[in-house]
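ARCHIVE CARD
CATEGORY: sequence design from structure
SOURCE FIELD: tokenized fold
FIELD CONTENT:
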């Protein structure tokens, strides 16, 4: 043995089930791997060592006694630290929640555990998921496993890095404006943002409720699809979830039966986004486009006019919702140890809230401004109108196309510190990803090639609840991209 940590989720489950190796052996290897690479990568805020080992032993005993096991039996998963885990601290990358231990599990966590998954730790993120690089964390930046002087993307950078660095097999992140697809692209793994309403948000610490979804990540399309299948479905604790079935997998096998089998997929490449990316990125997107057309897909270049206003609309809506969501951190309901003795209430409140980092503070200020009575019509209302227009434009495109493709990120991973002082430049990197969140449609990033040693992801977007079709296109891109390598750590 010695390299069990490299296995995919489906390989682990069948190995554990057939008793080729025990869950304990595998989890021990994962924990060794974490110990070895964490000083370089810093993907985790908390490692769940004792509990993970315990769960593995219980699972082994259960299998020895002939018990049935779930589709993720023994698989090491990491969970972004803004998703609540009962009894395991959940910091949101913030000093505000440094000591917060949730009394309940998010619905997705319960579902993963019921499938036999083993939580090995909680992963680093930009504070409250606000950022694109994982530099805005109170627990230090996460580093890109392919080159530790560079950012892994964000805000789910810890989740992506933990999967790329083989510290776990799969992970859950959250995607509000690209936070799973961006780091998936920068770390050369797969990340899927589901249709809004497919996956329960119960237990996800809110940043911008109307935009975000909990989103799976893995090293292969089938691993990420398997997790998506297991976490999706209606939840009585989240009334934005729906019962519409969007995906069926059998042990990660995406299967057939969707549109692609009846006729070749109709693929549209979004011209504006591809032209706006770095030359290397657009070269790889066109490469995926050619690959799809050599697999019987009919490929056409298309225009999406609302692209010009999408980013401004996203940042207006996201900051508005963020300013409201962050109002609850007053150090009365949740918080850290700070003695109120001797403070007048306003001073106490201000002092406690000064624990937010710079990006969260910026969003509170911008969000309060765009919602203020004098400016609501000028900014917030306009942003909602753009959102409606974008949705309409996409709906009509999806009459003619099964999937739309574009870059995931317009640029390659940059150096840590390079953009952190320039918020506008940072926001501009989200131009390709925010569209899917505004429209509520599914979108994913799949590794499509390498440039200068870095993976470049292609983004595939489908109409609402057409995950199955999107995954089929992604498997074609994955099969031809020749990106099956891992970082040297
Ligand atoms: N980078 C985007 C933002 O900062 C997206 C973040 C996210 O998806 N959570 O808002």
């Amino acid at each position: 043995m010695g390299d069990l940590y490299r296995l995919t989720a489906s390989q682990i489950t069948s190995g554990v089930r057939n008793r080729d190796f025990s869950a304990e052996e595998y989890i021990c290897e994962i924990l060794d791997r974490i110990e070895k690479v964490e000083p370089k990568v810093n993907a985790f805020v908390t490692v769940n060592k004792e509990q993970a080992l315990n769960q593995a032993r219980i699972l082994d005993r259960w299998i020895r006694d002939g018990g049935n096991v779930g589709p993720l039996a023994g698989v090491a998963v990491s969970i972004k630290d803004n998703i609540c885990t009962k009894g395991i601290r959940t910091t949101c990358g913030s000093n505000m929640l440094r000591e917060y231990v949730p009394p309940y599990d998010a619905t997705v966590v319960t579902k993963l555990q019921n499938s036999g998954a083993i939580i090995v730790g909680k992963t680093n993120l930009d504070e409250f998921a606000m950022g694109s690089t994982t530099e805005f964390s109170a627990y230090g930046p996460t580093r890109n496993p392919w080159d530790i002087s560079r950012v892994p993307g964000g805000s789910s950078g810890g989740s992506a890095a933990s999967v790329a660095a083989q510290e776990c097999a799969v992970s859950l992140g959250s995607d509000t404006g690209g936070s799973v697809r961006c780091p998936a692209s920068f770390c050369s793994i797969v990340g899927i943002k589901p249709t809004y309403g497919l996956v329960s948000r119960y237990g996800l610490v809110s940043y911008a409720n109307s935009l975000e979804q909990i989103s799976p990540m893995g090293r292969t399309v089938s691993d990420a699809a398997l997790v998506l299948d297991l976490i999706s479905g209606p939840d009585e604790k989240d009334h934005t979830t729906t019962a519409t079935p969007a995906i069926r997998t059998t042990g990660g096998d995406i299967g057939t039966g969707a549109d692609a089998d009846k006729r070749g997929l109709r693929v549209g490449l979004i011209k504006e986004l591809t032209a706006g990316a770095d030359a290397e990125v657009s070269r790889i997107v066109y490469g995926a486009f050619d690959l799809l057309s050599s697999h019987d897909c009919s490929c056409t270049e298309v225009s999406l006019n609302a692209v010009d206003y999408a980013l401004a609309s996203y940042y207006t809506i996201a900051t508005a919702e963020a300013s409201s969501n962050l109002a609850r951190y007053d150090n009365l309901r949740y918080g850290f140890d700070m003695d109120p003795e001797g403070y007048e209430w306003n001073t106490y409140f201000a002092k406690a809230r000064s624990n937010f980092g710079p990006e969260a503070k910026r969003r509170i200020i911008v969000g309060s401004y765009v919602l203020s009575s004098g400016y609501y019509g000028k900014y917030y209302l306009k942003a909602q109108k753009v959102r409606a227009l974008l949705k309409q434009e996409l709906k009509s495109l999806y009459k003619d196309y099964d999937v739309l493709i574009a870059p995931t990120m317009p640029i390659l991973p940059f150096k840590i510190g390079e953009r952190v002082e320039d918020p506008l430049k940072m926001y501009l990197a989200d131009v390709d990803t925010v569209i899917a969140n505004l429209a509520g449609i599914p979108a994913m990033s799949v590794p499509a090639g390498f440039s200068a040693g870095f993976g470049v992801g292609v983004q595939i977007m489908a109409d609402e609840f057409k995950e199955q079709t999107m995954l089929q296109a992604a498997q074609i891109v994955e099969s031809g991209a020749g990106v099956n390598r891992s970082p040297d750590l």
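CARD ANNOTATION: The CA atoms of residues 197 and 241 lie 4 Å apart. Residues 377-400 form the longest helix (24 residues).
SHELF: design records, drawer C
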